[in-house]
Write a structure and sequence with these properties.
Blueprint lengths: L1 H4 L1 H26 L1 H7 L4 H16 L2 H11 L1 H21 L3 H29 L2 H33 L3 H4 L1 H15 L12 H20 L7 H26 L14 H31 L4 H6 L2 H17 L5 H24 L4 H16 L2 H9 L7 H26 L4 H19 L11 H4 L1
Helix pairs in contact: 2-7, 2-8, 2-10, 4-7, 4-11, 5-6, 5-7, 5-19, 6-7, 6-10, 7-19, 8-15, 8-18, 11-12, 11-19, 13-18, 13-19, 13-20, 15-17, 15-18, 16-17, 16-20, 19-20
């Protein structure tokens, strides 16, 4: 009976996950097309790198703002606008005749992704009752795992058969279907924000751009003075942003990020720990792929096949761990996940140091998929479960921002030390997981009466 009564919610989740799958797919699918982009667009290596960097930069920078836009204008409506922007810019990417046009179109793609991403988590948290939210987040996590698996494989198939343009053209019909289904299946939720503080928007965008650009481009610019100026600017923006949020609260206006959100213990813990997970995943893959390709002479496609078991087990286990998080203490779930990741990364580092056969590396990689399944959905549920409807959009924006920042910083950090040694490079994701492990040990069990859907 309950499953029947929740059918509209599950249909809404299915519609939302189509777009979520697409934007995650686009973070990994382009890497496969790098050789063709380099040759056919007569691009330099730096320009090809910016095809990905522009997307990630414009994805990360607006997330704080776009989460709040969902509160102000409606999560469904902002999601559809974001998907329309993403779909049209995907078409522009495929039609690009120069690498500069492609970089610009990819930047617009990132803006579309930033518009729709926070709405997915916010809608899940508002339409599902507390005791089913973990199962919903489990499906959400499974979609993420499938996207990570499908990116390199689908990219390789499309590029080899049809050309690099089709890794973007494939988004167009899917995007149209997503917009129609979201309009038909996702309910129009109550809008809970009165207005957005434009000064906070400007400061947050400037600060995020300065930080992400400095982190991304620091190694390429050899940490020239301009990079440190950007870091200093980002720090000043943080101080100014906090002051603006406090002033808005005292004046009884809606701050962009209500600071009381960090008074929810589990939210603060979850936002930090997901940043550590994002850092780990993005800093781990580069040394692993270089070990497989440079040390053992595997092709990019052969190396990506070794990742299939990891992605598959994460995909299969995500709904299971999501359902478990509705009943099991979040501290227990997260300790298993982060603790398992620490042990697996240690084993992986050891195998790489002794120059083990690539097939042996599949074992810890697969176990990493198991451990990570105990992080993504359970951590999302624990982080968002206690937030009130007024804080839903802001909370989703902050959560996705910290995850994306962790990913960007992780990729940049490992790139800076990779030439030193494999052990040093692999110590970075391990250190991030240790920090996450210590943090999630402070989780508390949430009180049902404080949850979103039960109060609405």
């Amino acid at each position: 009976m309950e499953q029947e009564s929740l059918r509209p919610q599950w249909k809404a989740l299915a519609a939302l996950c189509i777009g979520f799958f697409m934007i995650l797919l686009d973070q990994t699918i382009v890497a496969v097309a790098t050789p063709q982009l380099y040759a056919q667009l007569d691009a330099t290596l730096t320009e090809v790198v910016w095809v990905t960097s522009s997307y990630l930069l414009c994805f990360a920078v607006p997330l704080l703002v776009t989460g709040r836009l969902g509160d102000r204008y409606g999560q469904r409506e902002v999601y559809m606008v974001g998907m329309a922007v993403f779909t049209l810019s995907s078409l522009a990417c495929g039609l690009s005749q120069s690498v500069h046009a492609l970089i610009i179109a990819r930047a617009v793609q990132g803006i579309g992704a930033a518009l729709l991403t926070p709405q997915t988590m916010s809608v899940i948290n508002r339409i599902f009752p507390r005791h089913r939210r973990g199962a919903a987040m489990g499906v959400w996590g499974a979609v993420a795992g499938l996207a990570n698996l499908a990116g390199p494989l689908l990219g390789g198939l499309l590029v080899s058969r049809f050309g690099w343009q089709w890794i973007f053209f494939v988004n167009v019909p899917i995007g149209v279907v997503s917009i129609v289904l979201v309009w038909a299946w996702v309910p129009a939720l109550e809008r809970v924000a009165r207005r957005i503080d434009l000064a906070s928007v400007a400061i947050s965008m400037i600060g995020m751009f300065a930080l992400v650009f400095a982190v991304q481009q620091g190694p390429a610019l050899h940490y020239a003075p301009v990079v440190w100026v950007l870091f200093a600017l980002a720090l000043l923006c943080v101080v100014a942003f906090i002051a603006l949020q406090r002033r808005a609260a005292r004046a009884q206006r809606d701050p962009l990020v209500p600071l009381q959100i960090f008074g929810y213990r589990n939210f603060s813990i979850g936002a930090f720990s997901i940043a550590m997970m994002g850092f780990c995943v993005n800093s781990m893959m580069l040394p692993v792929m270089l070990f497989l390709q440079s040390t053992h002479g595997m092709s990019a496609q052969q190396a990506s096949f070794l990742l299939i078991p990891m992605a598959l087990v994460a995909f299969v286990l995500a709904p299971v761990t999501g359902r478990m998080s509705d009943r099991v203490h979040p501290r227990t779930m997260s300790l298993v996940g982060f603790g398992g990741c620490v042990l697996v990364l240690g084993a992986m580092t050891g195998l790489m140091l002794i120059d083990a056969a690539p097939l042996l590396l599949m074992i810890p990689l697969t176990l990493f998929g198991v451990a990570s399944a105990f992080v993504w959905a359970p951590n999302s549920v624990a982080t968002m479960r206690e937030l009130t409807p007024e804080l839903s959009g802001a909370g989703s924006g902050v959560y996705n921002t910290t995850r994306q920042l962790g990913s960007v910083i992780g990729a940049a950090a490992v790139g800076a030390v990779l030439s030193t040694s494999v052990a040093l490079a692999m110590s970075l994701p391990m250190l991030a997981m240790i920090c996450g492990l210590v943090t999630v040990s402070k989780y508390t069990f949430p009180k049902p009466e404080n949850t979103l859907s039960d109060r609405a």
